[in-house]
Sequence to fold (358 residues):
Amino acid sequence: MQKELTNEDLGYDYFFEHNRSQLELEKYSVVRVIAEHRGVYKVKNLNGEYSARVTGKQMLGRISRENFPAVGDWVAITELNKDQAIIYKILPRKTIVQRKSIDRGHIQIIATNVDVAFIVESIGRDYNLNRFERYFSIANNGGVKPVVILNKIDLISKNELELKLAEIKKRFKDIDIITTSTINENGLDDLEKHITSKNTYCFLGSSGVGKSSLINKLLNKSVIKTGDVGIHNHRGKHITTSREMYFLENGGIVIDNPGIREVGVVDIHSSIGGVFDEIIEIAKKCRYVDCTHVHEPDCEVLLTLKSGELDMDKYSNYINLKKEAEYNNMSEFEKKEKEQKFGKFIKTAKKSLRKRNY
Fold:
């Protein structure tokens, strides 16, 4: 006999029930957002699935995209009929995975109420330690535990794989690493062991790293469309275009995401904790409280870097992420002022060069 579904099987717990009570939402049904397609949300609870929308009146009061429902959210609804509903309110989020859009400047919510973020990179052109660090930063920022999945290991020899793993472990000392291949199914048992009932896991990574293929393997069926792998570059084609939640036989909950090209960090103070702890501890010994760790004399970080005890790539990525996050958190006026100053600097420099040529 099949077990009757409960909201707890969908990830509901005391945190959400307590907030539902605090917000006096007992008269509303609560459902979990499991997919979004152009402003229409697929939501689910123990009674089934609904197609839900946010009302026009509610939309007028929402300033940014962050205030709209996202995959993983628990929301209070009013049922219109057996398969349609109106979203009344979003329950407070336990955790959140979000990134800053580098080109547009706005914050994009990737998933909410996630327990673990599987950061997927594949062997080949996609493999990049700095990118891992960026993903770790956005996971830490939202209170989510990051776990590395190194996929497509069938493309390299055992010795090459061991070198890659040693490189990752040297840079990231306390991170869990899973190695997988959907071709020969190596590591899939290990991946399944990391997924437990009633917990939610999101898969993050660039296009073509094999996120959807891994989820299909976990589901034991081809639910998600995947592209053919290129003969020359071993990269899959970008197929997933929206976020969606899937439920595994063992009770685990997984979220597939479209490939992410750029991972912009939202808040450096929250993000770097856990990722750059080594540098943060060294920085406490710096002579200046507001030390930038770039040019100051007697900077402890720079001295440690010079001695070879601090990894140069890790330091460079830390400085880049710090600058990027600080810029992202500037107001539009501050950004405009900074760009104007830079423009004046360029103009002055060009003028000086022209004078020298005469």
Q: What stands out?
A: The chain has eleven helices and 13 strands. The radius of gyration is 23 Å. Residues 7-90 form a domain with the OB fold (Dihydrolipoamide Acetyltransferase, E2P) fold (CATH 2.40.50.140).
